[in-house]
Amino acid sequence: MEILGVDIGGSGIKGALVDIETGELKTERIRVPTPVPSTPNAIAQAVKELVESFKYTGPIGCGFPALVINGVIKTAANIDASWVNVMAEELFSAYTGMPVYLLNDADAAGIGEMTFGAGKGRMDTVFLITIGTGLGTAIFTEGKLLPNTELGHLKMYGKSAEKYCSDAIRKAKDLSWKQWASRFNEYLAYIEFLFSPDLIILGGGASKKFDLYAEYLKANAQIVPAQLRNQAGIIGAAYRAWVKHNEKSIG
Ligand code: BGC
């Protein structure tokens, strides 16, 4: 069974068909830049074109870089401010003509990793952090997600943690991996103080470069890169769409 997964990010919108039994991508991943300004209609149009390029019909799973409550966007840290209170699930369904199942992008990546990747079978506390334009978080215990944790906005030095140690900040401030890791370690210490996770999975764009900074990371928990790398969000979104769609068809 193949389901289209889409991952909307602050800088790119990515999609691929996913085999939801194995978690494998069945097509090339297609990436288009996130439109600027990233308004609701501009992003919805980009998603529609992305979906059309797959010639796909069926349920679509979509990760979105904001707080998503029942398909409605509630925050806008790395996207246009006009997204707040938009019924995005309905908007994307209207543009694509398909049922769209929307969730927070880090939650999507977490579901991907817990189902097919580094968190598979883990019943203890797993914390996933996506490191990209922002910092996204997902927490699982006994395999269950606590959705919309938004802990990239924990305050550090008076601002959101993601303004201190995201990958975008590393690039903007031209930090070496060692310098960036030293900032990120402070964030990990904060997370460990609050949640004492057993496993920390690092996802997002920076997961591909794990080998460049792994030696500098410090935490009590085991730290691993996302096994599905930056594809975790697409895969998790597709898997969840399939689960939700079946619940709907049955119930
Ligand atoms: C948003 C989160 C998102 C994260 C990663 C943050 O700025 O508030 O919802 O998960 O960026 O995209």
Task: Walk me through the structure.
The protein has 251 residues and is α/β, with parallel strands linked by helices. The protein folds into two domains: 2-105, ATPase, nucleotide binding domain (Nucleotidyltransferase, domain 5, 2-Layer Sandwich); 108-230, ATPase, nucleotide binding domain (Nucleotidyltransferase, domain 5). The chain is built from eight helices and 14 strands. Strands 3-2-1-4-7 form a five-stranded mixed β-sheet. A five-stranded mixed β-sheet has the order 10-9-8-13-14, covered by helices on one side. Strands 5-6 form a two-stranded antiparallel sheet. The longest helix is centred in the C-terminal third of the chain and has 19 residues, at 177-195. The protein is globular. The mean pLDDT is 97. Bound molecules: beta-D-glucopyranose (BGC).
What's this model, at a glance?
The chain is an alpha/beta fold and 251 residues long. The chain has helices at residues 40-53, 88-96, 105-116, 162-165, 167-172, 177-195, 210-213, 232-250, and strands spanning 2-8, 12-19, 30-33, 60-64, 68-69, 72-73, 100-104, 126-131, 135-141, 144-146, 155-156, 159-160, 199-203, 222-225. Strands 3-2-1-4-7 form a five-stranded mixed β-sheet. A five-stranded mixed β-sheet has the order 10-9-8-13-14, covered by helices on one side. A two-stranded antiparallel sheet has the order 5-6.
